[in-house]
Design brief:
- The structure is a single chain.
- This protein is an alpha+beta fold.
- It has one domain (13-301): 2,3-Dihydroxybiphenyl 1,2-Dioxygenase, domain 1 (Roll), CATH 3.10.180.10.
- It contains seven helices and 18 strands.
- It has helices at residues 24-34, 85-97, 156-163, 166-170, 189-196, 253-265, 298-301, and strands at 13-21, 38-43, 46-51, 54-61, 74-82, 102-108, 112-118, 124-130, 138-139, 146-147, 177-185, 203-208, 212-216, 224-227, 242-250, 270-272, 276-280, 286-291.
- It has an eight-stranded mixed sheet, with helices on one face. It has an eight-stranded mixed sheet with strand order 6-7-8-5-11-14-13-12, with helices on one face. The chain has a two-stranded antiparallel ribbon with strand order 9-10.
- A hairpin with a 2-residue loop joins strand 3 (46-51) and strand 4.
- The longest helix has 13 residues, at 85-97.
- The protein is globular and about 55 Å long.
- It starts with 12 loop residues before the first strand and ends with a helix.
């Protein structure tokens, strides 16, 4: 897909997702034992967990805050992408066996195979594998071009029987993984498109009956998504547990500057240090865009 000149570059990728948590020890244990993430750094300000020295999830202690209600804007899920099906299967197994979390469901989306969980504080998690890009089907052209996705039954037990290997289980924490996309709950899909496509510069890649929007850079099926399935009409977020920040990587400082100019033209408050830019979407979901030429994830490499 050709990237529009005023949009995000094709090498855009998703970075660390920060969660504000009430029970830091229990949540750290879940992400280590349940998702096979390694503890990369720990301080009074939080813990960083990831794979192969790449931080994927940051947990920040916020014990005085309440859990968000189902109908509030915020995080729908953080989606961790795996390079092969056996690595995905190993983490699906450990997540299913973790007593503190819960299995939510699974689906073949035509472009990917996905398994859904919730962590001990209700934050959504997707674990997925991308099918080869040459098998993805696109319809339409120009601004109306969209990727074909669906929800087809994907039985978890059959998947594990076919793809789980002893080698993948033994090497789980050493296998590569990345934040493939981040899916948000918002109050209005049209307002989300105006912000994430019109201002940030993502491309619209799919929609779902005016209930969901999928956007990406560089022809990926989606780096971010927004839906109103639980949250239609939701206003700006209160300070609650749950999503703290979404990090987006771009390859060069001039891309940060260009985005800062688009935000300024749209009258959106922002803070820039030159190498990174911080701002909020219309629902006060906090976004950080940072220069990181090495930040390309699995989604960009495949």
């Amino acid at each position: 897909m050709q990237q529009k000149s005023d949009g995000l570059p094709s090498a855009t990728g998703m970075g660390t997702v920060t969660l504000k948590v009430g029970r830091i020890a229990a949540m750290t244990e879940y992400y280590q034992a349940g998702l096979g993430l390694e503890l990369l750094a720990e301080s009074a300000g939080g813990v960083d967990l990831g794979r192969q020295d790449m931080p994927l999830i940051r947990l920040e202690p916020a014990a005085g805050l309440r859990l968000p209600s189902q109908g509030e804007a915020g995080l729908f899920h953080t989606a961790l992408l795996f390079e092969d099906r056996s690595d995905l299967a190993a983490t699906v197994l450990s997540a299913a066996q973790a007593p503190a979390g819960s299995f939510v469901g699974s689906a073949d989306h035509l472009v990917s195979e996905a398994f859904y969980f919730a962590d001990p504080e209700g934050n959504g998690i997707e674990l997925y594998f991308d099918k080869p890009r040459e098998t993805w089907e696109w319809k339409g052209s120009g601004a109306g071009r969209s990727v074909v996705m669906d929800n087809i039954a994907l039985p978890a037990r059959s998947y594990l029987d076919e793809y789980l290997t002893e080698q993948a289980v033994a090497g789980q924490t050493q296998a590569a993984a990345g934040v493939g996309h981040v899916h948000l709950q918002v109050g209005d899909v049209q307002a989300a498109e105006a912000f994430y496509v019109g201002v940030l510069g993502f491309e619209r890649t799919a929609g779902w009956h005016n209930q969901a929007l999928f956007v990406s850079a560089g022809g990926y099926h989606h780096h971010m998504a927004m839906n109103v399935w639980n949250s239609r009409g939701a206003g700006p977020r209160k300070d609650t547990l749950g999503l703290g920040e979404v990090l987006i990587h771009v390859p060069a400082a001039d891309e940060v500057d260009a985005l800062a100019a688009r935000l300024a033209a749209a009258g959106i408050s922002r803070h820039s240090t030159g190498a990174e830019l911080r701002f909020e979407d219309p629902w006060k979901n906090r976004i950080r865009v940072r220069t990181d030429a090495s930040g390309e994830g699995i989604a960009q490499r495949r």
